[in-house]
Amino acid sequence: MEIEKKILDLYKSVNINTMKKIIPFIDFTRKLNKKPPIPLKEKLCLIPIEDFSSDKVIMLHGVSVGEVLSLDNLIKKIKENFPSHKLVLTTGTLTGQELAHKKYDKLCDYITYFPLDIYEAVDKFLSKINPRVILIAETELWPNFALCAKEKNIPLYIINGRISDKSYPSYLKFRKFFEMILNFYTGIFCQSELDKKRFIDLGARKESVEVMKNLKFEIEKKSSDIDLFSQNSKVLIAASTHKGEDEIVLKAYKKLKSKIKNLKLIIAPRHLTRVDDVYKLTKNYNFKTGFRTKNDNFSLNDIIILDTLGELSKVYSIADVAFIGGSFNKTGGHNPLEATIYSKPAVSGPSIKNFRDIYSLLERDKAAFVVKNEREFYEILEKLLSDDVFYKTITHNCLNSFKSQQGAVDFVINKLGDILNN
User: How far is Cα 342 from Cα 320, in angstroms, rounded to an integer?
Assistant: First the structure.
């Protein structure tokens, strides 16, 4: 372990002035890749940080959009169960920061960036925030942050922890280093038995690792007052579609409808500015198309365009199969769980980077499908909509998969109670 300690000492020696010189080059590379610059002053704690040194603080961290969204119910439960504590939320990315402010400004006492893993910056940050406990969503292993928390006797936990198939072999190559870092953590609460095994394989203490299930499954069904007169029809929904995807859906729908006469389609464009373009596309295929805003229904229409805000999650309840958009382009997909919670099979294109962990679990449970191309897309839709036995099996899998992952919020709340009452 001597070599690993020397590596950590060298890593710890990098200071703020060094990073000021390095980051402009990183930003130049990011600019070439059309990514925003690193918010240097915020992440190096060079601007004033709100002082919570005299308060009781719970700190939560979610690096980007997916993690920030997964904290939704947990944040609400923390405010409900620990009203005397201040809640500080940090993110690592610009999009995560924007979403955090949009969703949690009224729930959190302070929202800011997670510090760059420079010991000076981390020390300043933790001295000001002075949390009684830190919860890091998923797998953010920052050596200086973990070391500094350990030195300040601040309990540090990974929640919703996971180690992907892709990352695991790479981590194993540096097992001794990660063993040292993981032992700075007070506890690791992970999504599955497989993740638990992987953390232990990497050197985490067995007694510190527990399975908590998955925060991303902590969503609730929304009661639906939507009636499109689809009782005698089968309904395919194309949810959160982006430019170029509607054509793929309509092409498949036309072919499917020639075999399944009572098949109807709901298209919910991700951006309402595209509603007119989507309508024109449907007319190119000679479909009768109505609009949700006009209270149109399937008695006179083949397709309904969902041109309203806030109704998509309800509409899944009246569909039979859901295509999740943003997956046949470079968007990275959208959340399939909004369909899965209603036991509706979700089908996605190959671009699923935003929800790769969720799709991995759903595919493992045979509750969702990620297709490579338009041919596979059509084939799985046809099987789901034509083979009743297969369809019932998949819906049953959806129900079981969802149930198997719930309970994560209560787990964390109970653990917090134990931690804060000690």
Answer: 10
In 245-344 the beta strands, taken as DSSP E runs, fall at 263-269, 289-291, 303-305, 321-324
Closest CA to 138 of 80, 214, 200: 214
**Rounded-to-integer distance, Cα 305 and Cα 290, Å:** 6
Label residue 114 by pLDDT band (50, 70, 90): very high
Which CATH number among 3.40.50.620, 1.20.210.10, 3.40.50.2000, 3.30.300.30 corresponds to the domain 234-404?
3.40.50.2000
Distance (Å, rounded) from C-alpha 400 to C-alpha 364? 12
Residue 306: partners with Cβ closer than 8 Å, 6 or more residues away? 266, 267, 268, 269, 292, 312, 315
225 in helix, strand or coil?
A: coil
Q: What is the pLDDT of residue 61?
A: 97
* Residues 113/39, Cβ–Cβ less than 8 Å: yes
Contact 366, 237 (CB under 8 A): no
Share of the chain above pLDDT 70, in %: 99
For the chain, the 3-state helix, strand and coil shares in percent, each to the nearest 5, are 50, 15, 35
Residue with tokens 């769980």: 337
Residue 108 is predicted with a pLDDT of 97
Q: How far apart are CA 57 and CA 131, in angstroms?
A: 5
Q: Are 185 and 204 in contact (CB under 8 A)?
A: yes
CA 163, 4, 184, 129 dihedral sign is negative
Residue range 129-142, pLDDT digits in tens: 999 999 999 888 99
Model pLDDT for residues 228-249, shown as the tens digit of each residue: 876 789 999 999 999 999 999 9
Instruction: Report, as an integer, the average pLDDT of 81-99.
Output: 94
Identify the CATH assignment for 2-218+406-421 out of 3.40.50.11720, 3.40.50.280, 3.20.20.70, 3.20.20.80. Answer: 3.40.50.11720
Which residues does 69 contact at the CB level (< 8 Å), separation at least 6?
A: 99, 103, 216, 335
* pLDDT tens, position by position, 247-306: 999 999 999 999 999 999 999 999 999 999 999 999 999 999 999 999 999 999 999 999
pLDDT for the residue 333:
92
Residues 6+ apart with CB under 8 A from 278: 241, 246, 267, 269, 305
Active site residues: 67
